[in-house]
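haha ok so turns out i had the wrong file open the whole time. this is the CORRECT one, sorry everyone. sequence first:
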Amino acid sequence: MIEVASGSVVAVVGHDGAPARVARRFYGVGYVPPGRRVFASLTVEENLAVGAYRARKDFGGIYARFPRLQERRAQRAGTLSGGEQQLLVIARALMGAPALLVLEDPSAGLAPPAVEAVARALRGLTVLIAEERLALASAAADRIVLVEGDRIVLDAPREQALADDRLDSAYVDVAKVRRA
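then structure:
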């Protein structure tokens, strides 16, 4: 069982959907699926309101964490950059005031500056990231869990995990397979 301490970010990394299988089906959890699924014709603020369907609309708290979204609150979500759309999807999930936020492949297709913006937005939250790429995990996570198949092969604090050869070899092996 993977424990996620309050206010910490744990990244579950792996390939072929393994992290998603581990991370799914929580109660009281905000879930951000892969892809930037915004309501393109709605404004940023209308997208956020959709996320608050069961909770009090705390636009102030969300805008404090995501100031870029406050600047764009009247803009149609479909016109935002990819990174801004990803921030919007995360912010919308947070509008439901979840005890735990689960993100599945949140850095897919994002440029490095957008990945950094996502990492900054997650700090201080209780988060479980199911991610194939190591960039967000290494930028945001307090702890990294490496999943191979359906097995946890590494569970360590970020610095220790990043220095572990198993993490390096898992990503080198996948890079070789994808290039072939």
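Residues 119 and 140 are 5 Å apart (CA to CA).
again sry for the mixup
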